[in-house]
Amino acid sequence: MKLYNTLTKKVEDFVPNDGNKVGMYTCGPTVYHFAHIGNLRSYIMEDVLEKSLRYSGYDVKRVMNITDVGHLSSDADTGEDKMLKGAKREKKTVMEIAKFYTDAFFADCAKLNIKIPDVVEPATNCIAEFIKMIEGLLEKGYAYVAGDNVYFDTSKLESYYVLSSQNEEELMVGVRDDVDEDTNKRNKTDFVLWFTKSKFDNQELKWESPWGVGYPGWHIECSAISMKHLGEYMDIHCGGIDNIFPHHTNEIAQSEAYIGHKWCNYWFHVHHLNDKSGKMSKSKGEFLTLSLLESKGYNPLVYRMFCLQSHYRKPLEFSYEIMDNVAVAYNKLLKRVSELKDDGAVDENVFAKMKQKFLDAIGNDINTSMALTVIYDVFREETNDATKKALIASFDEVVSLNLLAGVVEEKTQIDSELEVYVLDMIEQRKEAKKNKDYAKADAIRNELLEKGIILEDTREGVKWKLA
After folding, report:
1. How much of the chain, in percent, has pLDDT values that exceed 90?
2. Short-list 76, 259, 87, CA closest to 185
3. Fewer Cβ neighbours under 10 Å: the N or C end of the chain?
4. Rounded distance, CA 441 to CA 319, Å?
């Protein structure tokens, strides 16, 4: 198995710390809203990585956090807490928001055949671990208290920008040009480990700590959660490329300062999903969720196949035209598989030869495009249908496209999850109009319109449709 390592910026032979065992960590979702399909691309490719490792014979333990506290809207240590923002938006508690969107995330994972990691740990479960790690960093001189907050001191490190080839000025402009600088910091790259004093006096989730009542910074959770379940040595850490700086950079800084040695050997980053206007996000354009794709008639596994047709280290451009083409190709593939007969014994020689070809593809830095090509090659192989069917079933352990399920009719009904969300927004808009808060009512209408949902006020009430 060869993987591109962001740390060394080259493709390397993958060698685990402990023989055949692999400790793998995935940065999980911040559960303040539905995941958009750009987020889901990362989870699909990380799923393929895990399944490729298992298929190649490794014993994998995969851990993922759920960020249900302390993730700020800026990747700096200022900005608005996304969880608090979600709670305000929907007039619910932070934990109600977290529960709803965690369930929604895993519902999307199920539709996309994304395996749930062996360990899923919400940040709010690990406050004691965060405090213990922060205390250790303070004792070792890598952290300091200022303005009632605890900060990591990046000046104590020999090298801070280990994951990025950019220089400090380039990175700081990209990250902090939209926020006020924290005047409590000794250095502009220092980051918060624990907040006891922030601009959010109404922060809902707070805990007792040696530094006062407060809540953890964003970066500390992944370090502490991974060490809790994987120990001080980790093999692979995954995330989107937007996590490289500052999140993963800060994770390395605090983790290696705390344990006193190298922490993670391989860093796996998935590139952005773009539309024609650029990087996909929740804050611009049509908010593309899996439910929205379903409402437009797409099988979720068509989106998975769309992602697999491109390499994870390349930006991928989304369009409905491309999705239409992938849908046709996917159904043709299912039809070809469904026509294979059970016509005897599996030819073990052919099976071994083709399996090795598939292993070579996924072992070449998770080349999913080449892996799909190997699946098509099976149909051209001079062997019986039983062998072809066995090979496709085997390869589907990795690509997870339900290739033996038969042709699936494309969905045309409105997804129930989307419907619940829209009806809830309509009720909020109705309440806003009742209170003569017309600005809020217009904002709700505009938010729905950005997601491709049109409201129509009629004598019979408010009706809605997809754009």
Report:
1. 64
2. 76
3. C
4. 31
CA atoms of 180 and 382, how far apart (whole Å): 66
Cα diameter, the chain: 75
User: What is the end-to-end Cα distance of the chain in Å, rounded?
Assistant: 45
Average pLDDT in the chain: 87
CA nearest neighbour of 444 among 421, 467, 466: 421
Query: Residue 467 has what pLDDT?
Result: 60
Q: What is the 3-state secondary structure (H, E, C) of the chain?
A: CEEEECCCCEEEECCCCECCEEEEEECCCECCCCCEHHHHHHHHHHHHHHHHHHHCCCEEEEEEEEECCCCECCCCCCCCEHHHHHHHHHCCCHHHHHHHHHHHHHHHHHHCCCCCCCEEEEHHHCHHHHHHHHHHHHHCCCEEEECCEEEECHHHCCCCCCCCCCCHHHHHHHHHCCCCCCCCCCCCCCEEEEECCCCCCCCCCCECCCCCCEEECCHHHHHHHHHHHHCCCEEEEEEEHHHHHHHHHHHHHHHHHHHCCCCEEEEEEECCEEECCEECCCCCCCCCEHHHHHHCCCCHHHHHHHHHCCCCCCCEECCHHHHHHHHHHHHHHHHHHHCCCCCCCCCHHHHHHHHHHHHHHHCECCCHHHHHHHHHHHHHCCCCHHHHHHHHHHHHHHHCCCCCCCCCCCCCCCCHHHHHHHHHHHHHHHHHHHCCCHHHHHHHHHHHHHCCEEEEEECCEEEEEEC
Contact (CB, 8 A) for 226 and 238: no
In angstroms, the Cα distances linking 165 to 154, 244, 273, 392 are 17, 11, 22, 41
> What is the C-alpha to C-alpha distance for residues 115 and 165, in angstroms, rounded to an integer?
33
Q: What is the pLDDT of residues 222-279, one digit of tens each?
A: 999 999 999 999 999 999 999 999 999 999 999 999 999 999 999 999 999 988 766 6
Could you report the per-residue pLDDT of 263-306, keeping only the tens digit for each?
A: 999 999 999 998 876 666 655 555 789 999 998 999 999 999 99
| Whether 448 contacts 422, CB under 8 Å | yes
Dihedral pair phi/psi, residue 317, rounded to 5°: -95, 130
Question: Which tokens in the block code for residue 135?
Answer: 């205390």
The token duo for 413 is 């009904």
Cis peptide before 117 (omega within 30 of 0): no
Give the pair of three-digit tokens for residue 438: 């017309």
- Least confident piece of the model among 139-148, 160-169, 338-347, 383-392: 160-169
pLDDT single digits (tens) 71-119: 554 444 455 666 666 666 767 777 888 889 999 999 999 999 999 999 9
